[in-house]
Amino acid sequence: MKQYTWLPIMTLLAYYVNKELYKAISYLQTQVDVLIEHQSKTDKRIILINTQRIRLAAKAKKLSRKMLSETTTLFTPDTILGWYYKLIAQKYDGSGNRKQCGRPRITQEIVNLVIKLKVKEHKFNNKLNTLDMLSVNRL
């Protein structure tokens, strides 16, 4: 029985090409769906809402850069990948969990209390000063 060493390699190559084409077809189907939704608005410029951008970006991220540049005609690959990083990946980068450096800010409640105490102290000091002036005049 002959051993065909090239058969598994060809099978793997065919699988990879098929998988890549399937991703490209899926991306193009999503792009067509978005354009059909957008067609109801007869506008010259294509303005997408964030949900449409997210759908396109999620499908485009699965494609290789070369395949993306070959398949997309409406937007540049940089634009689409920029949407991915801005709208999808930003949720998972951990920036919401980061703490700010330095001393924590003073709450507005504490600021209001300090101002209130300062005003009261100022009024109290004015009364003391007038009493002192009266007592000095008596001597």
Question: Would you write up a description of this structure?
Answer:
With 139 residues, this protein is an all-alpha fold. The protein has two domains: 1-92, no CATH class; 104-139. The chain is 69% helix and 0% strand. The protein has helices spanning 6-39, 50-61, 65-71, 77-88, 108-138. The model has no long low-confidence stretch (mean pLDDT 77).
Kindly report the average pLDDT value: 77
Given helix and strand content, the structural type is mainly alpha
Instruction: Please write the string of helix (H) and strand (E) elements.
Output: HHHHH
Please report the number of helical segments.
Answer: 5
Report the major sheet: none
Helix content, binned percent: 55-70%
Number of domains: 2
Name the beta content range: under 5%
Radius of gyration: 34 Å
Shape descriptor reads elongated
Summarize this structure as a short list of keywords or feature phrases.
139 residues, mainly alpha
Which helices and strands appear, and what pairs or packs with what?
Layout lengths: L5 H34 L10 H12 L3 H7 L5 H12 L19 H31 L1
Helix pairs in contact: 1-2, 2-4
In short:
It contains five helices and no strands. It is mainly alpha-helical and about 140 residues long.
